[in-house]
Amino acid sequence: MPWCKVRCFATSDKAMNTRNLNRRTFLRNSGVSLAIPWLEVFGKSAEAPPKRALFICNTLGFYPPAFYPANPGVNYEASDYLSLLKEHRDDLTVFSGLSHPDQGGEHQCEMTWLSAARNPGRDGFQNSMSVDQYASGKLGYTTRFPSLSLSSDGAMSQSYTENGVMIPAMDRPSEIFSKLFLQGKPHQVAREKEKLRDGRSILDSLGDQRSRILRKSSSSDQERLEAYFEAVREAERNLSEAGAWMDRPKPSVKSPVPEDIADKADLVGRIELLFQLVPLIIQTDSSRVISIVIQNNHGIPLINGVAAEHHNLSHHGRDPKKIAQLFKIESAIMGCFGNLLHRMKEHQEAGANLLDQTLTLLGSNLGNAAAHDPRNNPIILAGGGLKHSGYVTHNRNDNTPLGNLFVRMLQEMGMETDAFSTSSGVLRW
Q: 232-282: per-residue pLDDT in tens?
């Protein structure tokens, strides 16, 4: 297995010699290891940080009047949702008039948002490979996980293999955290998870190894490591609160046990926990291709002023009261996205921030969720070291294939390709 190739663990002074350090070096204690971020100690000869891709889909769309600006270009007047991203304005481009050809109606286009396969939901439909899996296949096992598919709710994902088989998503942050950072035998991982539930940090058990790598690091590396360790602690604190209950059996009672709506309906909380893990995934180079699907299948979201289910509100029928509640939900999602961009910009890697190294796509498979319309998908592309152009419009009646943007992203990641699925070229702006 590819992971077995990694042998550079910080278990001795010899192993801590800077000449033996590389991007996959891990702090280790009691058989459990923890990845560390990119450091200057890797040397000037080390390869430049790689480009990554992050795909985020809100399956129930965004209310178009609140999403799109009124005027195109760099000097666009920000819409309500884009106003929530004002600190990142220079780091993103907004697109209209993009979609996949031949998508049909209803919600079947969820499964093809990353694959662009035609006619989802029809008899005999077979999905094709999603762009995240295409990218991870080209990259190979350059990281521990070629790709990661995550979800805010359930195992449904938008990641599909070459044969059109869905790759189940992980929706439990505690499971994701364990998968990323708790490498060891089952009983060792179980012990570390128990510590996490008790509010104790993995970092506390690293002891001398952690101190040794800090002593041997430059001042800038020390600052970077301390910031990273604090991010790990923050993730642990959040997961100890949100994840502890997930692993505990429910009590047996005579009356029917109601579904734990308080937890399941916390859409914003679930999204935030997932988004907090993204910088850690990138910092440790655990994966270079990440897809996240935002979906809400459990009750009324725990958002002030919202009194109906998300799906019901997306079919608002132009009811002002429903639109007002939908606005609150989508504003919260956009706020989570803004927080993610902020965290990524906070962390430096070889002279650039994580957002500069990560092509970050936020969008939806539905342009108008109220009508199940898969045309004119709301799309934001952030980061990636690109020169961004504000608001770029395409023909809203005769859409440009969204696959053209996928091709551009693949090329920016260094892949020699000029086509993907139903693309007609490469998107330029």
A: 776 676 556 544 433 433 222 232 322 222 456 889 988 988 898 898 888
Q: Distance of CA 287 to CAs 28, 152, 167, 336, 413, Å?
A: 20, 19, 16, 21, 13
Residue 371 is part of which domain span? 52-175+266-412
Q: Tell me if 329 is assigned to some domain.
A: yes
Can you say how many angstroms the Cα of residue 94 is from the centroid of all Cα atoms in its chain?
18
Tokens of 52: 């990554």
427 part of a folded domain: no
Average pLDDT over residues 136-140: 87
* pLDDT at residue 350 greater than cutoff 60: yes
Any idea what the CATH number is for the domain that residue 362 is in?
3.40.720.10
Q: Is residue 24 part of a domain?
A: no
Question: Long-range contact list for 73-79, CB < 8 A, 24+ apart?
Answer: 73/389, 73/390, 73/391, 74/389, 74/390, 75/390, 76/390, 76/391
Domain count, the chain: 1
Query: What is the model's pLDDT at position 325?
Result: 98
